[in-house]
Amino acid sequence: MFIDKINGAFNFFIGLGGPAMMFIIITVLSLIVGVSISKSIEGGLRMAVALTGMSSIISLLTSSFAPALENFVEQTGVSLSITDLGWAPLAVITWGSVYTLYFAFICLVVNFLMLITKWTTTLNVDLFNIWNLSVIGLLTMYYSNDNLVLTTVFIAVIYMLMLINADVLKPTINQLLKYDKTNITTTAHPSLLVAPFVMIFNKIIDVCLPFIDKYDFNAEVLNKKIGFWGSKFAIGAYLGIFIGLLGQQPAKEIFTLAFVGGVALELFGLVGGWFGPAIEPLSEGITKQMSKRLKGRKLLVGIDWPILAPRAELWAVANILAPILLVIAIFLPGNKVLPLGGIILTVLAPALLVVTRGRVLRMTIIGVILIPLFLWGATLVAEFVTETSKAMNNFPAGLAEGTLFSSVDSDPIEKMLAILMGSAVKTLDMKLILYAVLAIVGYLAVFFWYFKQMRKENAKELEASANLNEPQGVSVIETSV
Questions:
Q1: Mean pLDDT of 270-282
Q2: What's the whole-model pTM score?
């Protein structure tokens, strides 16, 4: 009877829905870490409103675009039958799951242990984006038949790599944003885990196309010339027109789709900005608790990737890659996703920026090469995203029953690893286990190769900066004396 009552209470809590669950959880956790009552309730309420807002925008987009997409598939036979709704559905799924709090706890423990042992100098306060890791964790559980041990180890390793990456990126961030040496800001955003693979192609360009940098151009000038026509409003409108034409819709419907697309893409950015402030009180409370135990240590503070947003190159390349993403999606073998919500590749552009140090032509070439990874990743996770949304009663209104939807989002390689490992553990197929082991070893080898390359480049930049600041005719030794 006691267990039945606990199950009943738990089922009632789950039945409240994601927004209500997160309102209660964020409020209670904030109170536990010493946040005031008013700030705790404010954080919980902001989270609930943000989740509700995202669900509403997703429903608007899907209900408007679904008929045109269905007609496009029927008329052409092109099987882009999976609707991409951007990062929002994944955030809704994960922040509506109690497992996200478990993964957040694991990440906090890993961060604390790495700080104590001096494996990292980054304290990651970007707690909201734990949902990116939660997606990877939930995927691992989904394919491994709920193997929590495997999932926990995998999440811990990925988070360790994120923190190490945040450390090694700091000198480049200082250079790009012209921070001085006293600045402590960095980013540990999961999307930057694609940087090692960007580095591979950056090195290939060094060997095969060393002259390409002579033809680079000023991204800030390009952005000014594009102006409004590169904004989210405009890109959403282009997308609506494109979908309307593909679906052979009448003129009235094409106009409607254009306006809905503009509204949806702009609102995705607006409502997405509500999540950060929602998690801030809890994040600040946890940071204070951890700082008390690390007195006297100079730490870097890891926040969200938009610290890189002031660089014009990031937005120029994101706008250049948007139409290319659509074209590649139509012709890419193995892809079944038509990009909508993830059309602006801010999940790729930050890594392109930091590895190439803002060289637009390199960013564009490498971006085109890596786009298929994101489309294949979205295709592979579509079943998981759809089934999980149904189980949580968050299936987008407007989508026909049986339709799959997904997200062109960050960490496609990590998601593929999660699926491969989960499937290997579930089936105990020796061939799959071997592939999984080789994939993990290869993944770690690429990361640590990249880490060494970044340290070498950081050292070169430091040396060049020292030489630039050295007085003419005076050696470094004489100056120091």
A1: 71
A2: 0.75
